[in-house]
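Recall that a protein's primary structure is simply its ordered list of amino acids. Everything else, from secondary elements to tertiary packing, is in principle encoded there. The following example makes that idea concrete.
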Amino acid sequence: MRLATYNIEWFANLFDRKDRVLVDDEWSGRHDVTRAQQAEAIAKVLTALDADAVLIVEAPNTGKSQNTVRALQGFAEAFDLRTTHAVMGYPNDTHQELALLYDANVLKPRHDPVGDPSDPTAPRFDAEFRIDLDVDETQDVVQFSKPPMELAVETQAGNAFRMIGAHLKSKAPHGAGSRDEAIRISIANRRKQLAQAIWLSRRVRGHLDCGTPTILLGDLNDGPGLDEFEHLFGRSSVEILLEAGLFDPHAAKALGPRPGSLPSTARFARPDEGRFLEALLDYIMISDDLRQRDPSWRIWHPFRDAVCWSNPELREALLTASDHFPVTLDIDL
């Protein structure tokens, strides 16, 4: 079985108010990319992935007239994808939903947000989490702007496992008007992101304590050593989740000695600097019991993956579709 996570930048901009795919020459949300170019590139990438299930991070919006599941299933039909079904968790107000696009002939997922909303230690993801973030003996109230999607999954072979799709808070100081304000916002954002990681790790730990195979995947917006503010808190969000009992080889490599280049799943333009910034942000983490099922990870990076580089059409599609690249996990389920 192949599972994937894919953050598709401004995917919501490719649909009208009735969730019809907009394949035209109007600009998408991506720089110098039309809606037709992005839609076709996304379809090419998803076709090449040939995954049985793909977590779509920044999926189309659910709102008064829009519906994420309808939009994704319409997109799959328009481009003849085999992942014809979709499921989502809690909708949010950011126009960046979390949803799973999947092949119903291979697996059956359902939204199953177990947990007590009033649990003070690890509440359900649509609730509030209380934690003292700055050691001032006052509990801070933390909420997810994009509540993680928790799925109960059963495969055609009869294997059952939990899947949690997540998109943790960005650390970027959006809206800062000065250097001091940027520092303040960055620290506040990192503090909130770490709280979300602690919350998520406790929910994961609960599943593992029950002996439930668990997969956590998505955009964690973090990785070991990505910025100087990590030293203020001692560890990254990724380390907190690994300590809960999960494993991802790319995260493990980033935590180890660094004689060479690190894995990368995202590429952001820095026009003022005349270069691109690369970062490891997207992960597929698995519980220890699943490590016995021949897992194999791959980052579909257009310049670092030999197959992607040697296929010009796929390489260009990856660069056109999003500023993130897919991560896949092949595993015997």
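The helical segments are 35-49, 68-78, 179-209, 230-233, 237-243, 249-255, 306-310, 312-321. The chain has eight helices and 16 strands.
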